Amino acid sequence: TVTADWTDPTHLDTDYWYRNLRDTVRFEDATRTLLDQGYRTFIEISTHPVLTTAIHDIVETLPEVRATVTGTLRREDGGADRVLAGLGELFAAGVPVDWAALFAGAGARRVPLPTYAFQRRHYWLEPARAPRSAEPADSSLWAAIEGGDAELLARDLEVDADALGTVLPALASWHRRSREDSLAGDWRYRVGWTRVAAAGPELPGRLLVLVPAARADSARVRAVLDHLAARGAEVVTAEVSETGREALGDQVKPAHGCAGVVSLLSWDDRADTEYGTVSRGTAATLALAQALRDHDVTAPLWCVTRGGVAVAGEPADPVQSAVWGFGAVLGLDHPDTFGGLVDLPAEPAESAEGAEGAEGAEGDDQAVLDGLCAALSSPEGEDQLAVRADGLFARRMLRDRDGSGGAWQPRGTVLVTGGTGGLGSHVARWLAESGADHVVLLSRQGGDAPGAAGLVADLAGVEVTVAACDVTDRDGVAAVLAEAERTHPLTAVVHTAGAGLASAPVTEVTAERFAAVTRAKVQGAQVLDELLGDRPLDAFVLFSSGAGVWGSGGQAPYAAGNAFLDGLAARRRAHGLAATSVSWGGWGGGLGMIDADGGDQWRRIGILPMDPAPALRAMARAVAGGLPHVIVADIDWARFVPGYTMARERPLLRRLPEVAEILAADTTGGGASEREVLLAGLAELTGPEQEAFLTDLVRREAAAVLGHATHDAVEPERAFKDTGFDSLTAVELRNRVNAATGLRLSATVVFDYPKPTALARKLRTELVPDQGGAADGGAADAEGREEEIRRVLASVPLRRFRELGVLDTLVRLADSAAGAPNAAAEAEPSAIADLDADELVSRAMRGTTFGND
After folding, report:
1. Which of 237, 743, 796, 828 lies 20 to 30 Å (CA to CA) from residue 764?
2. What CA–CA distance (Å, rounded) separates 600 from 618?
3. What's phi and psi for 822, nearest 5 deg?
4. CA of residue 358 relative to chain centroid, distance
5. Domains (ranges, CATH) in the chain?
6. What's the CA angle centered on 323, arms 319 and 325, to 5 degrees?
7. What is the pTM of this model?
8. Contact by Cβ (8 Å): 151, 599
9. pLDDT at residue 359 tops 50
10. To the nearest whole percent, how much of the chain has pLDDT over 90?
């Protein structure tokens, strides 16, 4: 890399090594020379790859060249397995490996391959074979600048190389920042509010309104109930004191036949000891959503908060904000039964005349109450609305291209929570490079965390403190802060701590799960906010997620916790304190980010992994920009929009030009719709043929989601979960089936109908309902009823039913309806007590009364 050519070892004299130290490293030139000479395998023998990335980049500039680039070891991954992985990669690329020498003395022996032919499928994209085009002059110029090649640049510019000594690094730095700023600008969004017309607020029909018992006597609650009734609604009120799922089940029964369910449960903002990190109101809202599903209530659910969002810079209540994150996911998981979110102004603080007078004054605000009625009528399909005294406002995601205000320049001491984790590691390195004098890395494991030692080594040049402390431990964090300021004053905090993602449908979320997911993120932010109080800081950065804005299927607790951070930032900013909540999309860059684990799934839905450098540049500009909340995400809207809007319209995205174009294209296709074509084809088939056709449709879509070449890889009777589906891919399958059929199936349909044949029967029932009782479909329908009965029985406490004698009665009813009135009576009591689920299903299938009731 001194001469970019082969070197005679006898020429490695002192002059050579002097040039090696003083002259430009011609690594790219040397690599291109080897490529030109036909070398296609590069192995870096080192304790951690340093050169492989650069070689990859060079190879990628040559579309006609395919090369294998690998290393031997990695930091924190230096065992024999890593060396063997490198050998395996070389062998797969056609490089001869002496496996006999490798396994010598191990007792390994060769075994013959099977004599039958292998099944062969090609899963990799072929590289483009287009001829390499000439590189533009400016591209070549900047490549030389960024490579630090003063001699090449001087030759191209026809100037003296010495004159470029100080200018060259400055130009390279400027170009890198400009490129990062450009990317950061493309990734930046914000939440805005647009005024919408409030049509006549009349509310015909019956509404079930759930009120927390702790707030039932407040003037504002009474005003809401009275106003809904005055505007034409038949109001059925349920006071909720027990917030458990089963307790709420009894109180949602009146919702059958209602035009809507209105929840004021979030207004109970007392701490919830069971959930730990959310209020009783948030816990009750979750339990309510579950109870409505348990009892098959189809009336739309509207969640009403107070002060949960900041429309015009006013403070937000983070506890109320959490419900907005939860609601965004609820709208994805259950689009068919979710009405929307409505935020009323925060209640005024208690005055000298008393809280009741303040509430009464607010409760009498006719404009706000009229706005609530207008919101519940869902104008133009809006599902995220804020009511204020001056009008009705709808939530929108907007582009944020404001590049003014410069960027935050770290200084002094900066605390990073989750500092040894993936996100924290990227932040720490950026802080060290950007001017911080002292970086404090706080994590539960401290210096014992995987990769901590290597991270500290990478931060050479700045003072580094690694503290083992749980961010929710108030006293522990206070001690760390006090110790951290011994050398430099604390100027900023970056809160990246949080639990990892783990998907689960809303119906399966427990109190313990909710607390576990939100604990570090929410309680940690609260501890930092309380300890730092009104201390002047340059930055108070909270790492949030886009899940709290647009939702993420199966991530209700995670979305609620991130929305809490967004609300906390709004409250701090409104009080004149530093705060920036950044709702991130997907991070790349390794270290456990999504491109290393599950990245393909995220890419399929349109969330692309971001390079950390421009992402952190966007964070720095957001801090300087002054907004309490920004969104930084690389979104492929062409992929994201079809799936996101499949089940229902999403007004949140209406003001994004890219989205508007995609949606307009979808509505101007012309010709018969896919649904019309599908229905016409089904009409020509018999019942069994319809079911077979729809089973193949489901298998094709499932194969596409899983990446199989044909639907043969998806067995019709094998459960989806056994073929590799999780909650994320289940939603993707639902979206594809919806697109193919024109239906609006719920996000849990793949779990409710857990194999292709079962889902196909569900599709047939929805698409051809008039043939549901045809003779040729009787067997299929019977099997469908059996699956439904089994699903219901899975949640029935059979042991308790036996103890109470209910089971005996149910069995007798089933047998009576089936024409065998004496069968149960003649059975021995012990035999009835020993009935298992299979026998119950068999008897239930013989009795239509049991099946219907």
Report:
1. 796
2. 24
3. -100, 0
4. 40
5. 136-165 (no CATH), 197-349+357-399 (3.40.50.11460), 413-635 (3.40.50.720), 674-786 (1.10.1200.10), 796-852 (no CATH)
6. 110
7. 0.67
8. no
9. no
10. 47
